[in-house]
UniProtKB/TrEMBL annotation:
This is Transcriptional regulator, MarR family. PANTHER family: TRANSCRIPTIONAL REGULATOR, MARR FAMILY, TRANSCRIPTIONAL REGULATORY PROTEIN. It holds the Pfam family HTH_27. GO terms for biological process: response to stress. GO terms for molecular function: DNA-binding transcription factor activity. Residues 27-163 form the HTH marR-type domain. Coiled coil: none annotated. SUPFAM superfamilies: Winged helix' DNA-binding domain.
Length: 173
């Protein structure tokens, strides 16, 4: 679904002044860009995995392995720590355990809780994705696409939007 889909229903005329309309247009463009960048990131990971012949896991699972890294976490912590953004975490965990990328163990204290960590095979994927991201970071700097300040500015802006949205969700409840 495109973010612009229901713009007519919202009606930009509800916003006072041309400045607000311009801001709304820029805001929607930024939202679309964030969405496209995430999909593009998954495509970049997929292409790298195809290049090296790693075809048994998908890019979402690869990002999960990358984000877990050296940590041992519960399935619930994967979402609360921001390691996993999807809605089907249990499916992806099951697939990664079955394929030998993650190890899972029931908690001795709370048998309902499962702790997960990477196996050596999972660490290999973590290293592969780390190298890919390092190569991209170097390329962005070397080609003058972004510098340290640019990345810090983008990150700070996105964190402010994240805080705003989080406050909006809390306000609803």
């Amino acid at each position: 679904m495109s973010i612009h889909t229901d713009l007519d229903e919202v009606g930009t005329t509800q916003l006072p002044g041309a400045r607000s309309v311009a801001f709304m247009d820029s805001y929607l463009d930024a939202l679309n860009l964030v969405e496209r960048l995430h999909r593009l990131l998954l495509d970049v990971i997929k292409d790298e995995f195809e290049r090296v012949g790693l075809l048994e896991i998908n890019p979402v699972q690869a990002l999960l392995l990358f984000n877990v890294g050296d940590n041992e976490v519960t399935a619930g912590e994967l979402k609360s720590r921001g390691y996993y953004q999807g809605s089907n975490v249990s499916y992806n965990l099951k697939k990664l355990v079955e394929a030998g990328y993650m190890h899972h163990q029931r908690s001795e204290i709370d048998r309902r809780s499962v702790r997960v960590r990477l196996t050596e095979k999972g660490r290999g994927v973590h290293v592969l994705v780390s190298r890919l991201f390092r190569t991209h970071a170097e390329g962005l700097m070397d080609r003058g696409v972004l510098d340290q300040k640019g990345v810090e500015d983008i990150t700070a802006s996105l964190r402010r939007v994240e805080r705003y949205w989080t406050e909006q969700i809390r306000y609803i409840y």
